[in-house]
Design brief:
- With 347 residues, this protein is mainly α.
- The chain is built from 13 helices and no strands.
- Among the domains are: 1-71, no CATH class; 89-160.
- The protein is extended, with a radius of gyration of 28 Å.
């Protein structure tokens, strides 16, 4: 096995699937659009030297872009989440965040209104049993509204981000804090040590799918920007002769070709972004499920006494979170009780 193959295996499927394939798509589309003679070169089997050089160029560009995407994967995801908007996008991100604040507030107010109405109706139910069907309908509506907020937005208003992508992921990260009392982000690296291999592989597969869709969306936008740049550069190479219909036609063809392909790239970007939202929902559900399924295994790994009920569990996790995250700086940390060591059997 060559050293290069070993290196690719070290990078893993995340590099091959989520980075190399989108990079190859960008390189191939760019070469075909910006070099119209490329198809003729590919059909010329006699010019083997040129074909080899072209293949090496495609591979080199694909590998460089793919490796860059892999190295910047965390930064790219943070951009999609809305943490690191580029300077020209600050205004758009600010406006988008206000929109999400309004949506979250509507869901929260609606949930509160339904909760109050349900409470009053339950008080009236013994004297008015005919209200039972309406009560059931309101309870279903409350459940759906509260669940939509829980799955879509974080609990705290100041944690709401500028993108739907970021809010879904932030809500999943807050699942552990809301249910069990510990910071999911801080405990995730520790939780990974007790997650079974099969579940880890499923997580990795879901993450690869998400990264692929995010990279396709990002590179589609990059391709659109390249088309805009190429359109303006083509204006310098096209000479419009006054009164020449042929020259004017060539001019229009150059402009509209790049405008059309750029618009197509933006549409593809939107398609892959929307697809990434569906993939993110599945990934977020797996994150939530990991906290639900394996948190007690983590307590065992940390040699902490297993709580007897949900109330004690919340207090245990909260205390453990204070100790790990803040340590001696915590104002509320309390004594943790560890499991007793089993006495060694005499040999």
């Amino acid at each position: 096995m060559s050293a290069f193959t070993q290196y690719l295996e070290k990078l893993g499927n995340n590099f091959l699937v989520s980075a190399m394939v989108p990079s190859l798509a960008l390189v191939a589309a760019s070469l075909l659009l910006f070099d119209p003679t490329l198809l003729n070169k590919l059909g010329d089997v006699q010019n083997a030297y040129a074909l080899i050089n072209l293949g090496l160029l495609v591979f080199l560009l694909t590998f460089i872009i793919g490796f860059t995407l892999t190295a910047l994967n965390t930064y790219i995801l943070k951009f999609f989440e809305g943490y690191v908007p580029f300077l020209p996008l600050h205004g758009a991100f600010y406006k988008s965040r206000r929109i999400h604040h309004a949506k979250a507030n509507y869901l929260k107010v609606r949930s509160k209104s339904l909760e109050d109405t349900i409470g009053k109706m339950q008080d009236q139910l013994p004297a008015h049993p005919e209200l039972q069907p309406m009560l059931k309908h309101l309870q279903d509506e409350y459940y759906n509204t509260a669940m939509e907020y829980d799955q879509t937005y974080p609990a705290k208003k100041d944690e709401i981000l500028a993108t739907r992508f970021g809010n879904i992921l932030r809500a999943a990260e807050n699942h552990a804090a809301d249910r069990y009392g510990f910071d999911g982000v801080m405990f995730w690296p520790r939780l990974m040590h007790v997650i079974p291999t099969d579940y880890k592989q499923a997580l990795e597969s879901s993450r690869n799918e998400l990264s692929f869709l995010v990279n396709m969306s990002l590179l589609s936008m990059v391709f659109s920007l390249l088309c805009i740049v190429a359109m303006f550069r083509s204006l310098d190479s096209v000479t419009v002769v006054s009164g020449s219909a042929a020259a004017f036609t060539v001019f229009l063809l150059h402009v509209f070709k790049y405008l059309f392909v750029s618009a197509l790239g933006i549409a593809i970007c939107g398609f892959f972004y929307n697809a990434s939202i569906y993939s993110l929902n599945s990934f977020a559900l797996m994150i939530r499920s990991a906290f639900d399924l394996f948190r007690l295994d983590l307590l065992k790994k940390l040699e902490v006494v297993r709580p007897r009920d949900s109330e004690r569990e919340y207090k245990t996790w909260y205390n453990l979170n204070e100790m790990i995250v803040l340590g001696s700086r915590s104002l509320t940390v309390d004594t943790l009780h560890y499991r007793k060591e089993k006495p060694e059997r005499p040999s």
